[in-house]
Structures are given as C-alpha cells and as structure tokens.
Amino acid sequence: MLRTASRSAFRRTLASHVKPQLTELSNGLRVATSTNDQAGAATVGIVFGSGSTAENPYNNGVSSIISNLVKSEGALPAAKLGAQISTSVSRESQSFLASFSGAAGLNKSLDLLQSQISIASGSGPDGAISGAIQKSIQQAEQFELNDHAGRVMEHLHATAFQNTPLALPVRGTVEALQDLEKIDIENFAKSHFRNSNAVIVGSGNISHEELVKAVESQLSLHSGEKPELKKKSSFLGSEVRLRDDTLPKAWIAIAAEGESVTSPNYHVAQVAAEVFGSFNAHEPSSKIQGIKLLDEIQEYHLVDTYDHFSHSYKDSGLWGFAAEISNIGQIDDLTHFTLKQWNRLTISVTEQEVARAKSLLKLKLGSTSLSNVSTANSLGANTLALGSSPDLAQVFEKIDAITVSDVKSWASSRLWDQDIAIAGTGQIEDLLDYMRLRNDMSMMRW
Amino acid sequence: MIGSRMRMLAAARQYHISAKDSASKVSTLAVRVHGGSRYATKDGVAHLLSRFNFHNTGNKSALRLVRESELLGGRFGSNVDREFITLKATFLKEDLPYYVSALGDVVYKTSFRPHELPESVLPAAKYDLAQVEANPIKISENLLYSATFRNDLGNAVLYDGVQKVTLDDIKAYADKVYTRDNIEISGQGVNEADLKRFVNDSLFASLPQGTSLAKEATPKTYTGETRLRSSEGDSVAAIAVPVAKADFATYEVLATYLSSALSDLSPLISKVKFDSFSNAGLFSLYVSGADATAVSNNIQKVVSSLKKSHDISVAKDATALRLALKNETEPFVQQVSLDKVKDFKLGKFSYAAVGDVSNLPYADQL
Amino acid sequence: MPQTFTSIAKMGDFILKTPALSKVIVPVAHQFVKFSGYRKMGLRFDDIIAEENDIVQKALKRIPEDESYARNFRMIRAHQSSLTHHLLPQAQWVKAEEDTPYILPYLLEAEAEAQEKQDLDNLELIKS
C-alpha cells in the first residue's frame, strides 16, 4: 500500500496555474497564448490547419517543402536577430515558430515570421525553392531507407485510411515531390495560409495583450474562407506488408480505429493505451513495470521495444501498438499475447491498471508542456481542432474522472471484435495472416 | 533528539540546493554528483554505479519503487558523463516528498546485491556501450577526449570490460562519491523551501559529510591524433580544442556560430559541440559522411578557413538564446557572460579519424 | 497454505526457539538424516532439494561460483556411487558440521522477491 498522507498535506504550497488565453481578432485570426512568466525565453508562431491531410496524391509533400524553405531562408535572418526558427509538419497542422529571449524579440520575430510566410507563399528566390524541394526529396529517401519504425507507422496510416486524406505520408512521396514546382507551392500556400485557417500562438515569457497588439499591427495573412477537405477520412480494416529479409529485425504495427480529437472518449482511449504503455527490453526499470503483458512476453524475449499509442485526428484515430522485434520466429506469439491482453480491456481490466494508466497519462501530458516549442505546437493544434486549447488542469480533472467501467465500455465498443489495420516491414515471415490476427480481437469464452 | 536536530541544521547549511518554481503540472528533481568518469578509480566504475542507481535499496526493492512510482505518475533515470552522475526524476507536482525520499534512498542505501550486477546492471551497461559503438561521431568524440586529456577527462565513460570492475569496486566508489559535499540537488517546478524541508527529512540528511571532489586546477592538455579503421556507419573526421575556463564564452559563441546559418561552413559540418566542466572544456567539431573523400575535402576546407580569423560576435544573440532555452529544460543553470567575445582563430588542435581512414587526411595535412 | 522454503524456515526457527518442541523434534530430525543416508553418498541436504522450478533455478544461478562447482562435483560423485551400488568410504562422508544450508539464503531471497511481485501485481487501491 502506498502512503499518500504526505501528499495531501503538501498540496497547498503549489504555485498557481495559468490558463491558456484566446482572443479572436476582427479579421478572423485567433491568438492563443500559454504564459509562463518564470521562463527565460518565449516562443511565438503561426500554426496553420493544413499539413498532409490538406494535400493530395499529386502535391503530397508540399507542406514539407514549405517547411524546408522557411527553415533555409529564415535561418540567417533569425540567427542575426538572436532568434531561432523551428518548423514542423504533422497530418493536420503545420507550424512556423520563432523562439527569442528579451523584450525586443517579439516584434522582430513577428516581422521575421511575416516575411517567411510571404516567401513560402511564392516570393522566394527560385534557387531556394529548388533547394527546398531537393532537401524534402532527400529527407523522404532517408526516411524510407533508415527509419523502419517510422515507415511502418506511415504504412499503417496508408492502409487504415486508404483513399482518404489521412493516408498520405507526412513527408510526401519521392514521386510526388519530384514533380512539384514553384506554382504548386504558391497555390497551396494561397489557399491554406489564411486568417481563418491560422492560429497565432505564444508560449513562455510573453504577455497575451502585447502579442495581440503586435499581431494586429504587424501581421497580415490572406483572408478568405477556410478550405474544407473534400473527403472525410475513414478507417478500413486492412493490411500492408513490406517483407525485407535483408533488414536485421522485424517492425510491425497493429491498430484498431481509435477516437477522433473531438470524441468524448478521447482521454479514455489514451488511458487504455497507457494501460499497456511502452516497453524497452534493454532498460532494467522498464522490465519490472506493472503491465501484465510483460510477464508473457519477457520469458522468451518476444519483443525488443513496443509502444502503445492512441493517435487522434479530426475525423478518426488509430489505437494500437508498434513493436520492434529481433526474435523473428515468435512474432505470432507476440501478437497473440498482445491482442489477448487487449481483450482484457473489455472483460477484466483491473482498478490498479487503470489507476496506473491515468497517472502515467497525466505525467505524459504534463511533460510535453515543459518546453516552449512543444507547448506552442500543441496549443495551435488544439485551438484549430477544438476551437480552444483546454487547460491542463481541466484535462487532469477529466482523466481523474475516468473509471474502470468507462475503459471497459470503450474497449467493448471500439476494440472487442473490431477490424484492425496491420503494417509490417523487415523479417515478417512470422507475422500471421489477417484473419488469424483479426480472430484474436475477441475470445470465444473467458 | 537534540543530536538529530543538530544534524538537520548542519544538513541545511551544507547542501547545494537550488529550485525554480513554475506553474507547470510536472516537476523535475535532479541530483548531480561529482562522480563521473573523470573521478573513476577504475575505467567504467562510474558507469556501473550509475546503472546501479534505482536498484534494490535497504528500504525498497527496485520492483516496489517502479510500481509505486507509476501509480503516482513519475519516472526516473540515471545518467553518467565525464563530470557527473545525474539522477533525475520527473513526476506530478504533488509527489515531491515521495521522490526526494526515493532519491535519498538511492544515494544512501542502495543494497548492491551481488546478483543484480550480472542479472541487470551489466546487460544494461553493455547495451549502452553498443549504442555508442554504433555511432561513429560518438566514437570520435571519445577518441578526441582521450587524445586531449589522456586521463582524468579523457577516461572512458562507459564500462567496456577492459579493466574488470567488481561489486566491491562499485561499492567503494559509491562511498567515495555519494557524500554531502559532493552532490547538488536541483528542482524545477519546485518550491525551494519545500525542497529543503523534504531533503532534510530524507536520507540525504544521513549522508556522510565528505569533501567535494570537483576539480579546480587547470588540467594538463595535449594535442594528439588517433585513427580508427571501422566499417560500421559513416566516416568521420573531427578536431577538438581544449578550452581554458576564461575562454568558455568564446567557444559557446563559436559553437553557435558554426552550427547556424551565420557561417558559410555550417553546411559542411555535421556536429559542433562545446562541453564545459568545472576546470576546463572541450570544443569539438565533426565532419561526417558516407563518402570518405568528401569528408576529407570538407574537413580540410573547414580547418583552413578556421585558421584565419573570424569575427564571431554576430552569433552572440543567438548564443544567448540557445543558452536561455537550454536553461529552460535543464535542471542545472549555467551562466556565461558573452560580452567580450569577438574574434576566433584556430590554433593547435587534436584530431581523430574514424571509418575509411585510408581516405581521410592526417592532422599535419590539415 | 502451500509449503514454501520461507514457511519451512520459519517453522524450523520456531521449533528451535521452543525448548519443549526442540527437545523432541531435533533428535527425530537427526535420526531422519541418518536413515535417509544422503551424507553417506557425499551429498549435503541442499543438494537434494528438487530443483525443477523457477525459485530454485533462480537461486542456483545466484550462488557463488565455487559453491556451484562443489555442488556439481558432489552430484557427479553421488551418481557414480549410485551406479556402482557402493557407499563412499567413510572418510568421505559428509559430516554434520559440513552439512550447511548454502542455497537456503538465496531460496529465501528469491521467494521473497516472487512474493513481493505477486503482492504488487494484485494491489488493492484504497481510495483516500
């Protein structure tokens, strides 16, 4: 039994928590900040609701090119100002952030971002654009060649959401990237980098009012309606295998359809994923975690590392696990035991497992807000998807309220006897066929 | 009773405790010990001690610690480098007392059961070593350290079995480095008064006084060249310069300058690193690639350019930001005054070549 | 309750602590050892503990190398005696003072670990 007496006595001394603030300007642009006045630096930036889902198979990778363009063109002016540009592309958002320290940094950083966005929208020099395209092609090739775990996750999206926007790889395909030209980039930027599709974010040591004032006077983006996706993304049980016996290991991922970001069960799915969590066979403390699955897979070293995830997007999500396996002769045992444990979420998950998962989820969510850049990114993505970014304290309250029966009823509707998507690469001879795996999503009796 | 009160007062006076409160929901607690590889009595003993952290203690088994910790929502780890063994725990804010006492247990009461060494510690240490040995840049960094400092800062960080380390060696080393004057405690997202109170209530207060092992005298440095044939991964050509304490600021700025767009050389360079220690630092620069001939050309270009004087003061602001961002996430804050930084010109340096060394230049060819 | 090494050791300690019990049981135990005859085959009591389970296997992995070597030697020697249907020459019989429990401490530790794991796997949460 764990003593918690000291905890309750201690609670009162905690520093008060600052909630994220949101202002909508008259031109439709939203400004969101999450302030931490103890921080020595601040980050401002623009997050657009574009990303790879806004692309199509013919311009797939254009967000990645723009990201590289801003990085290469913006690096020098940023360094001269003493600022640092970071860009990122995900499936449903794209961000351009500038970090700076000192009070004078805000206006200069916004100017910098403004000029970078106009470069991205087509006023960049031709040499820089072709350089950015080459860079994106190189990144896509390197990713295909070296990042097997990442590739399996891209394949998992490609098969699970086939023929819908979420299927497209974030970095783009080499084939599509090769054919892209300046005009494609301009068109994409013009139709997506608009007021209605953007959030200005600020995190760290920054004042909301000052940012709003500065944005009103300094920043202007294209106006116009927010572009709507032509197609909704939808999940389809299916599999894709890229067997390659020349690779040293096997990488696999299996997932059922998860929750969308707007779903009331968003956090329940995250808690369910945290019940099985992550495992690394090389780390002593990882081997003694309170995960019942570990007892079954450790004796025969069925897996090197695994990670359970709950990825959520606007229309749909993926809930499952990805694993790296050197014991390639027993992948069938690994998948069997893992999926049988997933069955337990519906029928016999315990109070203790859920409590553990809730605590670890809170830690995970709390840890991402430790750096300004990741705070700014999640602030932008949340504001775009949900209308406003929830306060972490509220999120924690929601997680605290989740019970074992919530997890059970979620699992019985979303996991028990549901279709799955499977992806694998490397030495996957032993990855069972679709029906055998699908059959493990339920049991005849228990 | 009076005795213990006295001891608590003494502890409060002598611990190096720093804390920074914040509104975040998660706190980090770090304990750093001057027990890194430069203080090691045998090669690798610091690494094994670091890997022994968070194993069974007199109060709590490793299993119980992990299970309790995950129910509270926390994680922990121990890391070793040339100067420090750093124990770090990240946890939900209200669990501070638990983690102070858990870390206190680890430094004061680790049991060092004989079976833990072969069953758990050695396999983990071996994996750490394998990770580094698969990375040519890391290998060349280690070569540069041993060429520049020979022993002390040049000691091997990770245990490789060249010198046999027994359980008794590890225990003796733990007794030597885990003393009150030799450790610093830092909290992020933690109230300083709370932290001090909890430290005094924990087993930290029972640690022997000891003396700080931190070295202040400037170490002797050398210039050397090492070459290592290897077919694993890219070829690397790297140079390193030992840095005296007075020049730390220049090299912090130089590292930013060479890795940012401010310098034309940055596309040629794979990695620039400046490590500062209590009494010296090492600036190192790596050029790597699959094609050794290209690496050879690039390192020659970089070195010949650096031998001319560069005005690096343009990178001061960027460096200030980099340090500010680093201080944001790292528990132990580092202050450097960049005001006087102006020019840089490369003088003598150590050199390491790893990979296809037949096609990589020698130091005198640079 | 199933018998474990922990419970046996506890019972033994209790008997030794209670003069009335130990006066009766200790001589019986000595007779038992004498009639079971393992010492005459050059074995110690800890050599004849059934080793086909996880607890004993774990303990066997953890005993010092020289103990492990000596144990293997005694086993091979006992097998040879058994094969030839001879007892060892009396000089080589294991004396009472040599028949010390060299695995038992490791067994107790392994059992305590397994017990702790089982307890932690089946924690009950008390809402506070």
From TrEMBL, chain A:
InterPro entries: Metalloenz_LuxS/M16 (IPR011249), MPP/UQCRC_Complex (IPR050361), Pept_M16_N (IPR011765), Peptidase_M16_C (IPR007863). It comes from the Eukaryota. One of its GO terms (cellular component) is respiratory chain complex III. Residues 184-361 form the Peptidase M16 C-terminal domain. GO terms for biological process: mitochondrial electron transport, ubiquinol to cytochrome c; protein processing involved in protein targeting to mitochondrion. Residues 30-173 form the Peptidase M16 N-terminal domain. One of its GO terms (molecular function) is metal ion binding. It holds the Pfam family Peptidase_M16_C. This is LALA0S08e02740g1_1. It comes from Lachancea lanzarotensis.
TrEMBL record, chain B:
GO terms for molecular function: metal ion binding; quinol-cytochrome-c reductase activity. InterPro entries: Metalloenz_LuxS/M16, MPP/UQCRC_Complex, Pept_M16_N, Peptidase_M16_C. It holds the Pfam family Peptidase_M16. Residues 17-159 form the Peptidase M16 N-terminal domain. Keywords: Electron transport, Membrane, Mitochondrion, Mitochondrion inner membrane, Respiratory chain, Transit peptide, Transport. It is found in: Mitochondrion inner membrane. It is a peripheral membrane protein. Its main location: mitochondrion. GO terms for biological process: mitochondrial electron transport, ubiquinol to cytochrome c. Residues 164-308 form the Peptidase M16 C-terminal domain. One of its GO terms (cellular component) is respiratory chain complex III. Belongs to the peptidase M16 family. UQCRC2/QCR2 subfamily. This is Cytochrome b-c1 complex subunit 2, mitochondrial. It comes from Lachancea lanzarotensis.
From TrEMBL, chain C:
It is a peripheral membrane protein. The keyword Transport applies. Keywords: Electron transport, Membrane, Mitochondrion, Mitochondrion inner membrane, Respiratory chain, Transport. Its main location: mitochondrion. GO terms for cellular component: matrix side of mitochondrial inner membrane; respiratory chain complex III. The keyword Electron transport applies. It is found in: Mitochondrion inner membrane. One of its GO terms (molecular function) is quinol-cytochrome-c reductase activity. One of its GO terms (biological process) is mitochondrial respiratory chain complex III assembly. Component of the ubiquinol-cytochrome c oxidoreductase, a multisubunit transmembrane complex that is part of the mitochondrial electron transport chain which drives oxidative phosphorylation. Belongs to the UQCRB/QCR7 family. This is Cytochrome b-c1 complex subunit 7. It comes from Lachancea lanzarotensis.
